[in-house]
Amino acid sequence: MADQEVQNGGAEKATAEAKGKTTLDLIVELAVEAPKAEDAVQFYKAVFGAVEIERATYPKRKADQERPLLLSALLQFGGNKVMVNDRLEDDFKAPEPGSKHQNLGLRLVSEQDVEAVIEKAVAAGAVAEGGVAEDRVLPGKHLGKVRDPFGIVWTIVGNTTKTFAAENDTAAVPEGRILLL
Amino acid sequence: MADQEVQNGGAEKATAEAKGKTTLDLIVELAVEAPKAEDAVQFYKAVFGAVEIERATYPKRKADQERPLLLSALLQFGGNKVMVNDRLEDDFKAPEPGSKHQNLGLRLVSEQDVEAVIEKAVAAGAVAEGGVAEDRVLPGKHLGKVRDPFGIVWTIVGNTTKTFAAENDTAAVPEGRILLL
Fold this sequence. Notes:
Two copies of one chain form a homodimer.
Chain A (H helix, E strand, L loop, with lengths): L1 H18 L5 E9 L3 H12 L2 E7 L12 E8 L2 E8 L16 E10 H10 L3 E8 L7 E6 L5 E7 L19 E2 L1
Parallel strand pairs in A: 1-4, 5-8
Antiparallel strand pairs in A: 1-5, 2-3, 2-9, 3-4, 6-7, 7-8
């Protein structure tokens, strides 16, 4: 087992170096019941010492809405990144009362081809969930989801060489224009 | 709002500097149905390019058990840390079929006093879940849980000035001796 691990680790490092995979990044997504994401951001800054790096908001949908909803607020917790969203759709199932379920997700961001990463994961036993679409948070990036053999769902974010017809992207593009602040 | 954010950010940074809070660390916990955590670690290394930093195992419980269960395997995903565990107890509820629920947790590790962080969170609207106990993964550290006002449960890991009677720690200490490899 020890030998196998060393071999795996060595091969993986060599592959990573060959691919120039220097930008692998894991982002924790916290989906908060809209419109409380802004309050959540303030809580994480004040209580846990998180630092806000950047944010993107949804356009205002109603004239009487006091503030735009958060598509994504990126917070830094030490060396780690957390993205806080206002949950508009059923991206994450709401926790049941008394349940320990959380509205958490994991985004794995790299410069790799998103289809290639998904194919590699599927070959290793993961199941692709839905297709690949444009990322509404990171312009120019594309994403897809896989459920790994251990039940964890990962959002894979990366590059793509494919072009997508507009109708294929509907699910991933929010209504209206995204305002990047 | 912009002014408020700048003020909050400034005040928080000053506080962080005053406290020497340089070790804030966020660790994502992935709870895997035992005994598959080892397979999960190999999957994350081979497919996602994660690098294993360290591991701790439970002692073998059965003579016929081929390998010890993973109490904690710490993986590095880029600059981020992920801890993979064999789930023995009902720490995390198993996902229901077809549900998007995940066995994810967040550990916030710092050099701060764990009771102080929990009190601060509770004062800001969080609810403490259970008491403070010794951390079975990080020797010398203590931990407690809070559910924030937005439904996210955080495991707060830090220091403590209190001494705990052995009977108070039962829930957090696995059976047998912990082997740190």
